[in-house]
Every structure is written in structure tokens, then in C-alpha cells.
Amino acid sequence: GNVPAEQQQQLMQEIEKMQVRDSLRMYNSLVERCFRDCVESFRRKDLDSTEEKCVQSCCGKFMKHSARVGIRFGELSSEAETQMAA
Amino acid sequence: GNVPAEQQQQLMQEIEKMQVRDSLRMYNSLVERCFRDCVESFRRKDLDSTEEKCVQSCCGKFMKHSARVGIRFGELSSEAETQMAA
Amino acid sequence: GNVPAEQQQQLMQEIEKMQVRDSLRMYNSLVERCFRDCVESFRRKDLDSTEEKCVQSCCGKFMKHSARVGIRFGELSSEAETQMAA
Amino acid sequence: MSASGGQPDPALAMEMAKQEMDYRVALFNAMVSSCYEKCIDKRYKDGDLSVGENSCIDRCSSKYWQVTGIVGQMLGAQGAMQ
Amino acid sequence: MSASGGQPDPALAMEMAKQEMDYRVALFNAMVSSCYEKCIDKRYKDGDLSVGENSCIDRCSSKYWQVTGIVGQMLGAQGAMQ
Amino acid sequence: MSASGGQPDPALAMEMAKQEMDYRVALFNAMVSSCYEKCIDKRYKDGDLSVGENSCIDRCSSKYWQVTGIVGQMLGAQGAMQ
């Protein structure tokens, strides 16, 4: 977009806000997902070691997955911009 | 609601913002839904013609569905307002 | 957080806004959930008495559930703060 | 940016009008997606709605609306809407 | 509307307080809906929680909270929270 | 806070830039969660992605992107994006 120079700073602040908001949302959805996939039994109030390990793997997998999609997303966006400019 | 006249314009701007935001959200959820329902195989990186046709049908159906619910929603809202006023 | 005194009022207003927004969101998600779990047949346009009773029970259960999680959430938050301070 | 006296606050009225819109949009979207799940055949042979789907949508919209009424009454009764 | 110097920015503190609230509300809502799925019998014979459901809710809340801790540590460790 | 004349409105440009970002973030998040459901083995034996999962993610991202194109064209064609 074509944003006037004097509003660039305001835009940067908005981006920062969004990044915080988005990383909190990602954190929340990661907890929800790994809880749903890993915790099935409610006969105790503490996680057992299998559940803990599962949550750690889930979290690790999700972060790697998300990073990889990020790379592909960047590539696909650049390609699209190149095609638009051509 | 009873909004003072001088804020009507601001409200209109808010409505416009909401409409843009909402149509983008609708677009995103439509992509998510049609992708989920139509794309099952990941042995290639391009959609095949069956998948493409499925996405088009899904999209067409959703838009017609959404339009029809919109009409019903309007009717139900009017009925409710009529009953409130009576 | 350490919010300057003169912004406390603005923060209170934000909290109020959030509470309204959040109770509307809760209302919406409750309707969605109880509709999904209780209404299966679309051979008539009005709810039958079994569906109505189901929606009422669903709603009652959800509110009691939500209240109980709220109590636990409060306890867990306090424990966490106590541990942080120690 | 906000009136700090006791008189009616235009920013508040504005905020309430905005929240009412937000609420109606969210209600509509939830009705759309709930009835989509209940009524639409996901095989997507073509892009048109069948007669059965169309009448399901009408009844589904009506029932969904009735559920909002019941839930609203119950939340109101228990004062849970704050 | 925003301080452009290097000194502490009240609008920023405000924004952070707001985001902390947003976060806590979202966490609570996710806990409510996650434990609802895990613990509640969806046959809805009546509107009360059974003894089994109540104790499931308590344990579920506790376990959900522990999962937030593990995930928080892992995100922190990998600096993925930016 | 907003220009009321006919000339280009910086607040509007700002708003559009913000919505574009919002949109891109939402698109990315939807791609992440859609491809997670399609590609990732939920048994979570360890925290690494297998070779099969990695290639599935690449193809899934590509196909997801193509779906955004088809849906965009169809919404544009019917003027449904307002």
C-alpha cells in the first residue's frame, strides 16, 4: 500500500501490536491443540510423564511445521508479486 | 441505537471497515473449508482437475447457501423487531 | 502491569468493553454448541419439545461448567502469582 | 476522547452501536456455518443447491434463531450476561 | 497519540495491560471449551453436572494449566514468541 | 481524526495497510493449521518432522495457495467480495 511517510511510525507500532497479539494467539492455540491431542485421562490432577512428553513433541512438531510453512508462504508470496509485476 | 448525528459519519466508516474485515474473514474461511473438504492427496504439488472442480463447486454452494441464510436472517430479524414493537 | 494513574479510567473502560464483547462471544458460542449438539432433524421449522429441553440442559450444563472452571482458573492464577513472588 | 462527566457519552453510544453490529455479524456467521454443516452435501458434485438442501437451510435458519432465543432467556434469567 | 521520545510511553503500557487481559480471557475461554469437550456428557439428560463431571473439570483445569506451562517454556526456550 | 474532504485520506490508507496485514496473517495461520491437520502424524512419538511430513507440508502449502486463487477468482467474478 502507499502510506504517507509520517504514518510509517504509527504503522510500525500497529505491526508490533499485531505481532504480540498474534504470538499470544499462536501460544493459546498451541496449548489447545497439544492438550486435545495428548491428554485423555482425568483420573489424576497432574500430567503423567507420557502426557508431558507428548505435549513436548507436539509443541516441537508444531513449531517446526509452522516455520516450514512460513518459508513456503514467503516463496509463494514472492512468486505472486513477481507475476503481478510482469 | 441512538447515535448523535455528528457521529453518524464515524459509524459509517466503522461499518465499512467491518464489511471489509468481514469479507476477508469470509474469504479466508471459505478457502479453509473448501481446502479441507476437497484436497486429500499430497503426492503432487499442484491441484488436479477433480480437486479444482470440487473447490469451485464448494465455493459456489457456499455462496448460494450464505445468500439464502442471509435472506432468512433478514426475515427473522424483521419479525423479531415487529414483535418487540407490538 | 504498571499503568499510570490517569489512564486507569481508560483501562476500566477497555475492561468494560471487553466484558461486553466477551459475554456476547460466549453467548454466540453457546448457541452454536447447543444447536450443534441438540438439533439434528430439519423436517420441520420449529424446535420440538425434546430439542428445546436439550438446549436448556446444554445451556445449564455449560454455565455450571464455565463457573466451575472460573473458580479453578482463579485458584491456579493465585498459586502461580504466589510462586512468582516467592 | 471520552466524556468524563455524568451526561450521556457519545463515544459510549458509538461503542454500543459498534458492538451491536459486531454481535449481529457474528450471529449471522455462526448461523451460516452451523447450517452449512447440518444441510450441505459435502461431495460437491456441482455448485448448485438441491431442493432438499434449500428447504433444510430454511428450517435450519428458523431453528437456529429459536435456539438464540432460548439461550438468551436462560442467560438473562441467571444474570450470566453481566 | 503516541509518545515519540525515548521515555516510557503511557499508551504502550496501556496497550500491554490490554493485551495481558486479552490473553487471560482467551486462555480462560480455551480452557472452558477444551475441558467441556473432554468432560461433559453431551446427551444432556438434565442441566446439572454429575459428580464425575465435576471432578473431571477440576482435574482437567489443573492439567490444562500445566500444559500452558510446558508450552510456554518450550516457546520461550526457542525464542519463538518473538 | 479523519479527513472529511474528497482528497486522499491518510487514515484510510493506514486502515487499508492494517487490514492487508491482518488478512495476510489470517491466511498464513489458516494455512498452518490446515496443513497441520492434513500432514502431521498426531501420535507424537518425537518432536521432529519425518521426511514424509516435510514433503507433505511443501505440497500442502502449494495446493492451499492455489485454492486461495480459485476462491478469490470465484468471489471476484460474482462480486461477492463487495
UniProtKB/TrEMBL annotation, chains D, E, F:
The residue range of the signal peptide is: none
This one is known as: Mitochondrial import inner membrane translocase subunit
Which species does the entry assign this protein to?
Micractinium conductrix
Which protein family is named in the record?
Belongs to the small Tim family.
UniProt domain comment: The twin CX3C motif contains 4 conserved Cys residues that form 2 disulfide bonds in the mitochondrial intermembrane space.
Establish whether keyword NAD is in the entry. no
Q: Name one GO cellular component term.
A: mitochondrial inner membrane
The record's SUPFAM superfamilies line, in alphabetical order, gives: Tim10-like
* Bilayer topology: Peripheral membrane protein
Domain Tim10-like intervals: 14-75
